[in-house]
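Anyone else keep sequences and structure tokens together like this?

Example one:
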Amino acid sequence: MKKVFLMRSHAARAYAARHHRTGGGGQSPLPSVRALGVVAAVLLLTPALALADTLVLKSAPTDGDGRITIGDVFDNAGAQANVIIGYRTGATAVLDAGTVQMVASRNGATWDNPRGQRRIIVASGADGSAPDDTQAAPVASVQKTSLNKEVLVYAHSMNAGDIVQPEDLQFASVQAQAATGGLPRDARSAIGKVVRFPTREGGVVHTGDLTSPTVIKRAEAVKVTWASNGMALSMTGIASKDGAIGDLIQIQNPTSKKMVDAIVTGPGEALTGPAADELRTRQTLSLR
């Protein structure tokens, strides 16, 4: 009897030892401490890697050579540090935040603008450092004087026919008398437009300097739509001249040879009739 009891006790201990190693039910062993440490490290590093791709705006951006780069304005610029986002011709330059965001994105960098800033002021100083003391007084005078106005200017000279890109524009403080006439509301309203005649670096951007790109060429076939009260009729005619969106041009009816006044609405398309008159009226009111 004593021998049987000892055999049963030995078997029970062997079963308990196997159960402890496998976690019961024959399942695989629990992950090792080393494996858990690797997983924890990956989880801890993931936020840091995500943040590494996001630009952080410096508290006091400066540049030393007049060429403002992503590295001058942002910490954590990495490979995009030398990408030019604007130019400075005076003691300070004021960049449009939306334009900076677009240029950064085009070059593979991300700035989420967490504070919703509209403009970024860049002062004269060593690249990426605090501005020199000698520049402090001019900066203060530019910001406080009522004789100056902050407007959109050309970052460099442009030729007639050039299409305006984000890097072609920047905000700058100019004398109030130079900032008269029609001015763009913001950089976005000028980007994508065509320069009508040569402009100089630092010159104030006026709406009259720019025009919409040509979408209809002279002698090109154009679909003309007559529309009124939900009814629409279409024909194909020949354009008498080049036209941009919103332009009023004449299109010849190939059958009757008569000329039809129509408003360009897109590439190869124009509108005539009462609907065109309403569109023209809205355009006139929006310019006032």
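And example two:
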Amino acid sequence: MDKITLENILEPISLQNFFQNYWGKKHLVIRRNKYKNLFTWEDLDNYLNRYPNIKSLQIIEGTDKTKDGRWCLDKILKGKLKLPLYSKDTIYDFWKNKNKTFVIPFAEYEKQDLVDACFEFEKYFGHGQVNVYASPNANSKSFPAHADATENFLFHTEGKTKWTIYKEFTPDKPETVIDEFVLEPGDLLYIPSYMYHKVDTIGPRILLSIHFANKPDQTLDSFKITPYSQNKRSKWYNWAPYKKIKVVKKVQHVKSNKSNWSKPYFKESK
């Protein structure tokens, strides 16, 4: 996987282009085949099989006892929600037979690549987090049209996801659709703070929402970049007493005679 830098994440859009023309103004779709291994079905298996010994889990439409219908493990464990603690078999039934969408908040410390991504984004933005959204099939419900208070970078890693983007930002209501598209593994979507959007599941899928608040008083004229050494985030340590050695095999590349084989590399929003 490419080194996790904001330059590589936004490629082929330059940092200057992004911050001048997209940041806080409009969404950006980049179609490519990068970072699709950030969180896979195998990672989801490993996480959910540790239930209930996990940090957090939310089930969309997992209860009729809360205002938004979300069943939240962390709030139940802390006594903030008076709901039953489901058995592992019940959790699996919600996924396998009832087709519920699962959300894993605060998933950044599940993998080093996610921690590295947070450190990189936090050079330019405030403290953030990684949420994993996973759905078992096309009938799984997601959230209705809504807006988030953070800068949202959405990495698509498994399956396809349909997006609807609205012209309006809060406090206005979502009325005018300006873009609809389907994203696949490796694709990236940026949505600025307070811009309305909606997700529809059209099959099994996993996507990561890596999102951050803007730094206080951050502007193009006075832009603060926080060095790694000043980031207060807990570091990721490599506990293995030895280093893994990667074996690099030389591969002979054969030029293809097929021209114009790829779809457009990225799509700019209008």
